[in-house]
Amino acid sequence: MRFRTGMAVILAAVCAAGQAGEGATVMNGKILTIDSHIDIPPDFATPAADPGRRGATQVDLDKMEEGGLAAGFFIVYVRQGPRTGAGYARARDAALTKFAAIRRMTDELYPDRIGLALTAADARRIHAEGKLIALIGIENGYVIGRDLSLIERYYQLGARYMTLAHDGHNDLADSARAAPGEPAALHGGLSELGRTAIAKMNRLGMLVDISHVSRDAALETIAASSAPVIASHSSVRTLYDHPRNLDDETMRALAAKGGVMQIVAYDSHLRKISEEETAALKALLTSLGMNSPAEVPGKALVIQERYAKGIQTIREHWPRANLENLGDHIDYAVRLLGIDHVGIASDFGGGGGIDGWDNAAETGNVTAMLTRRGYSDADIEKLWGGNLLRALAEAAAVAGK
Ligand SMILES: [Zn+2]
User: Fold this and answer.
1) Regarding beta strands 159-163 and 34-39, do their DSSP bridges make them parallel or antiparallel, or are they unpaired?
2) How far is the CA of 202 from the centre of ligand 1 (A)?
């Protein structure tokens, strides 16, 4: 179901609460909902990708307001590249471009609509002012290359978490998914540089993120960090055996350290995708001159329409993951770890999105799903950002010591 207005979303949440008979009436817009992983295009906050204008992307300010999504970690993501001086310099420049884009949105273009939060208290203050909130996370420690001083530079620009690796090993940690031609493990977990980087992040109050790293690297990171560690966008391995998902042992270790696992609404992490479906999607993309669905928003309208039509046909054969699949992963994590160690992420702009939560405007559907499953108002506030802000505050407290 798709809703056209914020009021419709709120009404749906209220109706769902009534049906569940739990008496929960928590509504988006009131609570501080945080999506911990929103990717941005390279030309973000330019006329070509203006977050203040309603466009084809899954997240813009209108959609956040409409869906009652109060806050998002906007992501400085840089793809893994060569581990050479030239590669590091390119990665650093690409990271700085994305920092500048996010800061352009908050500082120059829309300071009246969205504010940059550097602390948990900032987030609560900006929310009380009635504005949206931007936080900044880095995806892929490759952006520091081997230069640890860049961690502090990125912190000064606003980064409050850093995912140590992405797809492909880097100088800090092994990835859960080696790049083609790479061995399964390069360091056997963390490198020495990775351990030093974690200590530096702890001293600054930047959260360490284990999403995308190998199981060994995740367990070593949790043990090495003196502050709570997060998984900014990862789902449950026991429910679906995907290399990006976390197994029970890693989940328990994360929670024991006070950390938070942000369950991600990513189709291919929540259900098995067959080879036939993969081939059908690839054929569609190729026929439209694309390699990835991420390229769709940048294409001409006619291409976007042809893509949408093709996807509709594919979905008739192979339905996408939906809100109930997401709810199953959240329930499992809450049963294993308790309500204080679980949160929610979309990975919008980076391949995320499921039936029922496919853009920020549909965020109320997630709240309604949680209400239907019997979560109380207090539980939902924790899942939707309370836990993540607690971890951020604890990381800052560790840094202050
Ligand atoms: Zn990711």
Assistant:
1) unpaired
2) 22
